[in-house]
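User: What would this chain look like folded?
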Amino acid sequence: MKSDLAVFEGLEAGQRETYARDLTLPERAAIGVTTLGGLVFVLCTIAPEFARSLGWGGFLAVFGLTGAGAVAWITLTYRGTQPGIRHDGVFFEATKRRSAFTYVVTVLLCSLYCSLWWWRDYAPASLQHLDPLAGGIAIVDPLARVLTGGPADGWFFYGFLYTFAVAVMGVRMFWKYRHNRYHIARTISVIWWQAAFGFTVPGLLKMAGEKDFYFTYFWPLKPDYLLPWEVDHMITATSLGRAMVLWGAGMTFVAVPVLTYLYGKRWYCSWVCGCGALAETFGDPWRQMSDKSERAWRFERISIHSVLALITLITVGAWVHEALGRPWLSDGGSGLFWKWYGFFIVAGFAGVVGTGFYPVLGSRVWCRYGCPQAAILGILQRFLSRFRITTNGGQCISCGNCSTFCEMGIDVRAYAQRGENIVRASCVGCGVCAAVCPRGVLKLENGAYSDRFDGADEPLAEVLRAIGVRSRS
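Assistant: Here's the prediction, encoded as structure tokens.
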């Protein structure tokens, strides 16, 4: 079978115009402005002292130019087009399939995460002064001093870059999905939660002398918020510590089950979570790259639940270890396993692989294969939730758009062809499958258990019987 590139090269010149066109002068200008901002960023990266001397001028030159140029390019690309999702020729565009371009982007993203997570801890002492992020840190330093009251560090730089990417690519989402109120609303939601509670609020807390707490993350996605030493630190070190501990525990044990029961995992994964925010905005151009094979599905079920089991064991073990007076490891040694979990899972899996490989593996690598929060939400969604995607099989024309653009690798078309509702643990309820369907076959709904699939009431009945409550029959 020919590769996408071979097929593209075999197209007649007239056919190629469907997928490639000459850029207009305004589009070239937009690209030029974005490129200029990128060049200033590279210059600042090479010469951190120069970046520091520029102050706000450097910050505005880098992010003002790249942001304005990118937004202009997005607007020019979508303005004047027919509302609706354009998915023709998606696998023929070098920026949206495995190509030299996407592999270069992958290397750059992975390099960013490696520098962020591992450079300071593992680079040789003789090379520490060559911190790859020093220039970026210098660029955002003026903003850090306003928001946090102190100098910028690698995490502040990353947090701003992350939020910047979500906001700029969020503009693309507004244009791309301007015909669909659901996608406009959820894009506004993820931008708001990331900008407010994923970036601004932690900075303000730091300025006030409090812990830079992230209210949109909780155990097990943010496992340290329920680890004994972290809980003890929050309670004793800050005036808001107890409220933070109560918030984290309340979200983990109360809000997550209740909201997932009502709305499925989409309330978090596609509307609140910062990981989902980046995936749904910055990662949207590569959502079609997700593996749809049965082999990938088998691996997904093993990997994601293995990570959940691992962090659960670490958390329980840490509390038991502390409660028994740290009998097995020396003082402070109870964090040993958490340290290695942070190295391999948080940094390696969620960071380097989970985000760095967006361009070649799709936008939900971490969410699909590793996120323990998604694992819990998925179990609840599969067995104890009112959420489902209904299908009208009689209207399905088997075009395959729904399966192609499912970032979680679900073969949506197979369900639609059989007229079966889609109730999958991995589904994040993004709704793109319904948006790209030309016949309105798919619909996201919340309803009674009996409407989800045959025997859907049975898991709930078992739970109710276990706690001594008579179930409906």
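Confidence is low (pLDDT under 50) at residues 1-8, 11-18. If you want, I can go into more detail on any region.
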